[in-house]
Specification:
By secondary structure, the protein is mainly α. It is built from 14 helices and 6 strands. A two-stranded antiparallel ribbon has the order 1-2. A two-stranded antiparallel sheet has the order 3-4. Strands 5-6 form a two-stranded antiparallel ribbon. A hairpin with a 2-residue loop joins strand 5 and strand 6. The protein is extended and about 165 Å long. Pfam families: Slu7. It comes from Oryza barthii. It is found in: Nucleus. GO terms for molecular function: pre-mRNA 3'-splice site binding.
Length: 536
């Protein structure tokens, strides 16, 4: 079983070990005990109970199966809700300017903003909150009941018991009252009292279900006219047998899904058919119409009310939840009408025939404010603008406007210098002019480039003179020199064709005249000329 490191055993020792294990499994021998004195289950397989060789385990144990890497710093405790620490008598440096607590700043304060903060009044200094931080393990992070106080459920039990006692007391009083009425009445009055008793019997509590009405649903009967026989629980069938089953309305495979186990079809099997001709439109229609929608709204109201601190539960006290929901709707309608009346009283009703007040029409009031030539207030008081607790009008990097005061080409920027880089330094009007000049220059360059691409390139045919120079139109060639150049070019070509006539020492003359160049052109073979084979 949970053995130590494997050691050599003889055949006899091995046989005794197997017999001992079989006896332990059968309960004839006591179980093996580990280091801590705890019994080891003899049915644990050997590959789980045997420790690895590198642990050097001398005694049987199951410690190697436990998590060795468990951090002792992990905790399963939870936050102390609403706990307060030290409460100071005067304001401390670094505390919240609004309430005076040291555990947060003014921006993170959850109290109502005071007209004059605790920093200046030194009155009603709020106590410091207890700030805790926990390092939860894997189970602690996923424990949905972590931090739950079980003692809070005693209130639910107490309320339920109180309601049950009140209900029993009320029923007992009603029974005694009916008995007294029966004893006091005589003759025809007895007949009338019996009819009233029957009416009272019909008006039972809606939360209870009549047991006689449930008998048809829960009774068990034998199958009749079947080969299988046996018994089954019968359920009242609310569908007429002549109607077509809902899973046969549309035999398309891709139509609404029918679940045979629950006999439900949520979607409409015939969504394109005429609504007047359909008797079944899917089970979802029942959830979105009639009392189902009202019941859904009632559930949502109960959940929201419970989250806000009210002691309400839809399943435990449905009558109370419904009564509160009705009162909530009445109060909501009343508040809505009051708000509507206040708005109409303040701003008027454009649909009515009453004239619009002069104050709203011209934006005038009886408040008098006197200004001097420079625009300063001499008499009266200016309208106070509401201030935010966040920083406003903070200018950085020499900017005179805030970031986001300018918008262009789907980018925010500064209005003072029209830059779209947030950490840029303000350059003022000079930067705006330079940016506009560079933009104009870029547009001009792009326009010039587009115009150059549109114009086709013109290739001019050039006549080349000596050494690739252009041939002037007024060139004059000497006929004698031209004849000599032609003879010389013919002799040169013959030497090229017959290598035996080439001399060893070749004299080169780089002085080429216009006649020599013209002779070269005249003697040159033109590959595109159809008469080139008849030139020589």
């Amino acid at each position: 079983m949970a053995t130590a490191s494997v050691s050599f055993k003889s055949r006899e020792d091995h046989r005794k070990q197997l017999e001992l294990e079989e006896a332990r499994k059968a309960g004839l021998a006591p179980a093996e005990v580990d280091e801590d004195g705890k019994e080891i289950n003899p049915h644990i397989p050997q590959y789980m109970s045997s420790a690895p060789w590198y642990l050097n385990a001398d005694k049987p144990s199951l410690k190697h199966q436990r998590n060795w890497k468990s951090d002792p710093n992990y905790t399963k405790s939870w936050y102390d809700r609403g706990a307060k620490l030290f409460q100071a008598n005067k304001y401390r440096k670094g505390a919240c300017e609004n309430c005076g607590a040291m555990t947060h700043d003014k921006k993170s304060c959850m109290e109502r903003p005071r007209s004059v903060g605790a920093k200046w009044t030194n009155i009603n200094i709020a106590p410091d909150e207890k700030v805790e931080s926990f390092e939860l393990d894997y189970d602690g992070k996923r424990d949905r009941w972590n931090g739950y106080d079980p003692s809070t459920y005693t209130r639910v039990i107490a309320d339920y018991e109180a309601r049950e006692e009140a209900r029993k007391k009320y029923l007992k009083e009603q029974q005694l009252k009916k008995l007294e009425e029966k004893d006091g009445e005589e003759g025809d009055e007895n007949v009338a009292s019996e009819e009233e008793d029957e009416e009272d019997g019909l008006k039972i509590d809606e939360a209870k279900v009549d047991e006689s009405a449930q008998m048809d649903f829960a009774k068990v009967e034998k199958r009749v006219r079947t080969t299988g026989g046996g018994s089954t629980g019968t359920v009242r069938n609310l569908r007429i047998r002549e109607d077509t089953a809902k899973y046969l309305l549309n035999l398309d495979v891709n139509s609404a899904y029918y679940d045979p186990k629950t006999r439900s079809m949520r979607e409409d099997p015939l969504p394109d058919a005429d609504p007047n001709d359909k008797f079944y439109v899917g089970d979802n229609q029942n959830r979105l119409s009639g009392q189902a929608l009202e019941f859904k709204q009632l559930n949502i109201h109960a959940w929201e009310a419970f989250d806000k601190g009210q002691d309400i539960h839809m399943q435990a006290a449905p009558s109370q939840a419904e009564l509160l929901f009705k009162s909530f709707k009445i109060k909501k309608e009343k508040l809505k009408s009051e708000n509507k009346d206040k708005i109409m009283e303040k701003y008027g009703n454009a649909a009515s025939e009453e004239p619009i007040p002069r104050e709203l029409l011209l934006g005038q009031s009886e408040k008098e404010i006197e200004y001097d030539r420079t625009g300063r207030i001499i008499k009266g008081q200016d309208v106070a603008l509401p201030k935010s607790k966040y920083e406003e009008d903070v200018f950085i990097n020499n900017h005179t406007t805030v970031w986001g005061s300018w918008w262009k080409d789907h980018q925010w920027g500064y209005k003072c210098c029209k830059q779209t880089i947030r950490n840029s330094y303000c350059t003022g009007l000079a930067g705006i002019e330079a940016a506009e000049a560079s933009a104009d220059l870029m547009k001009a360059n792009m326009a010039r480039k587009e115009a150059a691409e549109d114009e086709p390139l013109r290739h001019e045919e050039k006549r080349l003179a000596t050494w690739g120079t252009d041939v002037p139109n007024d060139i004059v060639l000497d006929k004698k020199l031209l004849d000599e150049a032609l003879k010389k070019e013919g002799a040169r070509r013959k030497e090229e064709m017959d290598e035996r006539k080439r001399k060893y020492n070749v004299k080169w003359n780089d002085e080429v005249t216009a006649e020599d160049m013209e002779a070269y052109r005249m003697k040159r073979i033109h590959h595109d000329d159809p008469m080139r084979d008849f030139l020589h």
